[in-house]
Sequence to fold (419 residues):
Amino acid sequence: MPVSWSGRSTKLKTAPKLRPVRRLEVELLEDRWVPSAIRDLPGFTANSVMLEAGVLNAHNNNGSSPTAFNVGFTMNFFGTVNDSVFINNNGNITFNEPLATDSPFNLATDTNGIPIIAPFFADVDTRVLTQSVTTWGIDMLCGRPAFGVDWFNVNYFDATAAGHIDKFNTFQLILVDRSDTGPGNFDIEFNYQMIPWESGDSPDNPGQGGTNGLGGNSAAVGFSNGTGLPGTSFELPGSHVPGSFIDAGTNPLNQIEILSSTPGRIHFLVRGGQVVNMEGANVDFTSNLRLFSPFRWLLNPTNGQEIGNLTFCNIGGVLQPSPTDACLDITPSQTVGAINGPITILFTGLPPGTTLANPTGFTASGIPFITVQTSAISPNGCIRVTIELNNPNLNAETTFFLGPITVQVIAGTFDPTML
Fold:
């Protein structure tokens, strides 16, 4: 109603309406806030049946699928041709037989011919009924049939123990049909989101178990055809090494890129029954080395041979070309970081009249070689290899040797029968 003030008439003004404050919202796109290579494919969550003590139960410890599951396509894996796999709770799949082993072994071991593919071989424990289980299924990825296993938010042994500190890993395995490139061809893809634990706790086995999911016999990542033969297995560097693969570790899985542009994604391409991009296994990386040849030879007073040293330095670059597939996130090449050992030097050309006096062995075609048991050559890192030559014409101390030496350098497990 009107009021009077200083002889003037006016109206009371109503309070202005308050506009809502607009708050900034974080867009939860996984690759923008945390590295995450996990593919969200509903088909992979369709099934969760495992075998525990003879009883079908999705919640289990050391369980395996009761039967081999058909993946929907044929795979040729080092000569084992199959279309089905066993799913094992402890972070791996196997061909021909299930695997209940909870302690990760060296994947280069002879396992009586049981092939294994292991994105994270460790002691997974999914017995707590309110927690997640291992799931699997069939789906399509980029228009190709794909078989996947999800270990999403899985705990470590012993998840049922009093005082157990819960930690949950999330990782994934995908097999992709690549028969478009040849019969039996397929891709292996490992994906990682978070890895806060690396081993199970086993108080009754101190040599194997860790503490609160850390230490002990830590996880292995890789694959094998189960024979133990050279060139048929691969372990990612850091396997069995405590403190390596966890999120804050020295080689965190959710940061690794192999033939991929997404952190936490690793690709292996299986063509003609062979893995064609086994990093650090039978890889010729001579072009990525700087070679320093010895220019002076000293007489070894112990055996009368001439001693020299070859120095090799890792100068980086591209390790090898590979096919590209933008949809599958397969990148065209792999950049050299650390070159993984052991390192084998083949002496493909020696000075006339000389022979290698200290070879590790000879290839099938008679080329002498020396294998150095080094774990890796880091970027810009170097190794030195001592060589001894038999040469009766140059047996004087401090001889300057000007003859040519040519070498070929192989990283990883070396099979001398191949050359």
User: Anything to note?
Assistant: The first helix runs from residue 30 to 33. The CA atoms of residues 343 and 411 lie 5 Å apart. The chain is about 0% helix and 40% strand. Helices lie at 30-33.
